[in-house]
Amino acid sequence: MKKFLTGITTAAMLMGTAAYAETTLKLVEVITSPERTKVLQGIVDGYEAANPDVTVEIISLPWGQAFEKLATMVAGGDIPDVVEMPDTWQALYAGSGQLASLTDHVADWEHGATLTEKTVAMGSQAGDLYMIPYGFYLRAMFYNKALLAEAGVEPPETMADFMAASAAVSELDGKSGYCLRGGPGGTNGWVMMAAAMNGTNDFFTEDGKSRMNEPGSVEGIQFMLDLYQKGYAPKDAVSWGFNEIVAGFYSGTCAFLDQDPDALIAISERMPAEDFAVIPMPVGPSGKAFPTIGFAGWSIFKATEHEDKAFDLVAALSAPEANGTWAKRVGVIPVHKGADQDPYFQTEQFEGWFKELNGEQYDPTTMPTYLEKWGYFASTVVLETSQEALLGQRSAQDLADEWAEFLTDEHAKWQAKQ
Fold first, then answer.
1. Spatial contact of 110 and 316, defined as CB atoms under 8 Å apart
2. What is the DSSP string of 74-103?
3. Which among 182, 221, 340, 378 could disulfide-bond with 238, CB atoms 3.0 to 4.6 Å apart, if both were Cys?
4. How big is the CA angle at 353 (ends 352 and 358), to the nearest 5 degrees?
5. Composition of the chain by helix, strand, coil, percent to 5
6. What average pLDDT does the structure give for the chain?
């Protein structure tokens, strides 16, 4: 009888344990790399340890196909509970009513009050607070000190300097000036160059017309085409994404790279700090530069059956300590008040970004992510059409006109809903 009761007790304990881990949350990350996934898994492991009744399944989508793959998952009913949401996709999913509002959750969260105003504003761009951003990306220019010295040029301050320096470096055997991002995620480069040459980062005129095909913008698009077509960027760069451009820089293939702080991670691991530096983006004819500033964060799909537990996961990912770890390892500016006082962010490595944040000649550009189809435009339209132009199949004016027409139409649709 004693053995029988012991057996029943053991079985009950096993059954209870199985029942205890009763909730599975599906978390999809879309801006992936082995290092990022490792950091994410570490934070999730801590969450699971504190919540033994919840199991988190992490699904990593490669960035180059993430937009289409997530859309396919959602359309097919395989909807995650929590998703890493880029700013460019927020309006699409929020506008179609698929994201849960986090306003009440954050109001009751112990760390909600320490989120910076910019964090809450950016997470609310689609109307309500549909995302808790995990950090901000701001473009600045990396340069290889040795290559510039060998080419006999100084770090560029203007767009004209940048073109000349890229040309000079490209005269060196096996070297190129610019790590151009012609593949997935290249929209920021086209927008920055167009804005710099046009002297404004306003996407639309007062009457709602896109400024993308104004003469200055066309000149900026041609600037990018010239960098590639004149041989100042590697030939393979027409298809380069994030990993390729960063590798192109730290390998010494090209001397210039415009990127966010996240690129510091891979570069710092492979290049001594004294071999490279980060400067602000070069200014255009107006004397101003318009580096893009973007963000990503954590959202919850409204279709989840476990919204409270899903927010508990988002809260764990977004808590000050976890966010600080994430920001340092991933390469973003953190989202809680006071985080900028961390000595890590006061080093020389971040000098270029803070000059952009503080200098009057630098006007950070926020993408019009409130447009419902901005995500499709940035991920698909720009990618396909810009590659055609880089390969000489289309002109800068063709590109500008198509982009302007698309954006003007989307802006009109957005205005009609206001």
1. no
2. HHTT---SEEEEEHHHHHHHHHTT-B---H
3. 182
4. 100
5. 55, 15, 30
6. 92
